[in-house]
Every structure is written in C-alpha cells, then in structure tokens.
Amino acid sequence: MTVEPSTDSNSQSPAEPVAIDGQAALDEFVAENDVVLADFYADWCGPCKMLEPTVEGLAADTDAAVAKVDVDANQPLAQAYGVRGVPTLVLFAGGEKVEEVVGVQSEDQLRSLIERYA
C-alpha cells in the first residue's frame, strides 16, 4: 500500500491501519503524521489477533495514524525498535518515539496514551 504524501501536517490521518514494509516506509509514515501508533504484530500471534479490532477502531476514531508492522516480514525493523514480544505498540509523536507498550491493552488505555500526544 502506498502512502500519499501530506501537503500539511494537520491533514487527516488514515482511517484504517496502513501496512508498513521496511524502515524507510515507517520513517516516511511517521514524518507525514503528527501521531503514529505502530503495531508490531505476527500473523500467528493470538493476542495480536485479539488486539486487531481495537487498533482498527483507534485508526478510525482518533487523530493517530496506525501503522501495522509484520515482525516476521520486517525482522530488521522489529530489531531496530527492540521488539522482543508481540504485540508491541510503539507511539511516535512529532517524529520521535515517545512510548512503548507490550501485550494486549484495552482500547481506553491506548486511547488515553494517544490523547496525551495528539
């Protein structure tokens, strides 16, 4: 999936999670969006599947853009962010990594995390 460059930093974030493939794609996505929640997941991961509807809801209902990073397909990227278990959620604000949470989180917990930076 290609990401259209934004013309200004206040443009609408994508309403659906965006699949990210590689460091350059993640860097570009983070640069184009004020707040990004990166979901490092694996297809075989049960907790990741439990978290998926929550992550999709956050993409639709918050100002955060949501990136989905398959750790099996992007092992160097997962290593670069120190991902040791899935799901791992990394929050970026203003182009910088600001928070990281590991494991299934409630929608309320994640929403309040996003709202601190949005």
Automatic annotation (TrEMBL):
InterPro entries: Thioredoxin, Thioredoxin-like_sf, Thioredoxin_CS, Thioredoxin_domain. Keywords: Disulfide bond, Electron transport, Redox-active center, Transport. It comes from the Archaea. The keyword Zinc does not apply. GO terms for cellular component: cytoplasm. GO terms for molecular function: protein-disulfide reductase activity. It holds the Pfam family Thioredoxin. Residues 1-118 form the Thioredoxin domain. The keyword Transport applies. Transmembrane segments: none annotated. Signal peptide: none annotated. PANTHER family: GEO12009P1 (PTHR45663). NCBIfam families: thioredoxin (TIGR01068). This is Thioredoxin. It comes from Haloarcula nitratireducens.
